[in-house]
Amino acid sequence: xxxxxxxxxxxxxxxxxxxxxxxxxxxxxxxxxxxxxxxxxxxxxxxxxxxxxxxxxxxxxxxxxxxxxxxxxxxxxxxxxxxxxxxxxxxxxxxxxxxxxxxxxxxxxxxxxxxxxxxxxxxxxxxxxxxxxxxxxxxxxxxxxxxxxxxxxxxxxxxxxxxxxxxxxxxxxxxxxxxxxxxxxxxxxxxxxxxxxxxxxxxxxxxxxxxxxxxxxxxxxxxxx
Amino acid sequence: xxxxxxxxxxxxxxxxxxxxxxxxxxxxxxxxxxxxxxxxxxxxxxxxxxxxxxxxxxxxxxxxxxxxxxxxxxxxxxxxxxxxxxxxxxxxxxxxxxxxxxxxxxxxxxxxxxxxxxxxxxxxxxxxxxxxxxxxxxxxxxxxxxxxxxxxxxxxxxxxxxxxxxxxxxxxxxxxxxxxxxxxxxxxxxxxxxxxxxxxxxxxxxxxxxxxxxxxxxxxxxxxxxxxxxxxxxxxxxxxxxxxxxxxxxxxxxxxxxxxxxxxxxxxxxxxxxxxxxxxxxxxxxxx
Lengths: 225, 288
Ligand SMILES: Nc1ncnc2c1ncn2[C@@H]1O[C@H](COP(=O)(O)OP(=O)(O)OP(=O)(O)O)[C@@H](O)[C@H]1O
Ligand SMILES: [Mg+2]
Known about the structure:
The complex is a heterodimer of chains A (225) and B (288).
Chain A: E1 8-17, E2 21-31, E3 36-40, H1 47-54, E4 62-67, E5 70-71, H2 77-85, E6 87-90, H3 102-112, H4 120-130, H5 146-158, E7 164-168, H6 176-191, E8 195-199, H7 203-206, E9 212-217, E10 220-224
Parallel strand pairs in A: 3-8, 3-9, 6-7, 7-8
Antiparallel strand pairs in A: 1-2, 1-4, 4-5, 9-10
Chain B: H1 2-11, H2 14-51, E1 54-58, H3 64-75, E2 80-86, H4 88-95, H5 101-106, H6 109-115, E3 118-124, H7 130-143, E4 147-150, H8 155-193, H9 195-203, H10 208-244, H11 257-282
Antiparallel strand pairs in B: 1-3, 1-4, 2-3
Helix pairs in contact in B: 1-10, 2-8, 2-10, 8-11, 10-11
């Protein structure tokens, strides 16, 4: 096998939330390009925290995370924002702009990714159609139901066709048919050679055996299944 | 992109911008007026200061030599700028036409002159030398009962107004600091209010630069409006005052280059520079 550099590397990473709550303890982990990583574990085990460290909403208390061979702590502001532009993030708490419409929320993501899309309006409506949201396109996000908001969050993450997709419990509020829709999209993504990191404890997804499963328990990496 | 960000910035914070409008209208109006009054007071003071003298009256002194001795004595006092002498002849000359005719008929000129004093008009170096000078001269009156001292009218008022200068500098410093603090406070309030949304924007790969530029644009727009509004009110009122009291000059005087330069600097600082600096400082802790 030829040597392949890991896309993301966690090196002895610990995260302590002030004042002394240990959310992650000494994590060592490598994620390669094209991996489909499923992060699981009970509530409060540190899944979201681990993802936050990847997109740098939080910084590790000790240890270092590398993007290819660049340590995060050496990333300049500009480089960090470029790195984030190549991520598609689906947040557990959606993180939408409540005052903007569904369409605008998605459009911002597309514009920020700086990917040239010939007909972005068409593309956005295509995705909305797929999730049965096209009628709500001009509604303010704060007027949507929880599940609808989650769908907008998902579309926003995947529409920019990112190199790495980070999805934090993307199915928490959805019905089975929507879950299947998402699974299809994730599989397509994976087949295109993109990297996916998915945190979930949804049995439908876990049973599919999509990729490498990583289990967290009380902040510790229990097993690489 | 700016269109969406403006929506985010404005929709939930319109009330803060309204507040800024009111505050700056008030602040600017008050600033312009304090300069207007201050400069006019200084102006009037300057005119007075040049005329302000302590009058020393010396009665029943026939020998001019004694007067000259006294004069050289006074000249040695360090607070003295110069001294004018008004002899009884000159004084009589001056007041003759005001004297009742009976007096002129009943007394000869020589007799009148004998009753008139020598007047020494003693000018202090500056107004703040005045009290010290007066104390020294008072010593002379104690020794010689023929000597009397008169203060100019309104002296107390002018004397205190002189010290306005120092007070005014302190006031200006506090007043500017008050404005800077307000801007910083307002920016922080807005940042805090929009914190969640700025952070989402950063996580999607955006930078704070656009938010800063947008904030600057909004602040400047509101400030320009408030500035126009309160300045025109100021010009209107100060024009009215100057037309009622002609000794109140116009400040800033549009025809004077120096006035316009200062006014320009004031505008640049309050509308552009200070807002931009406070925006930069207030956003320091929002990078993630
Ligand atoms: N900002 C924070 N400050 C303090 N403690 C935190 C913070 N965020 C998370 N925690 C704590 O860290 C632990 C791990 O949280 P995390 O959100 O990573 O769990 P999770 O595995 O994603 O859980 P869930 O399955 O419910 O989403 C939790 O016990 C939580 O209380
Ligand atoms: Mg979580």
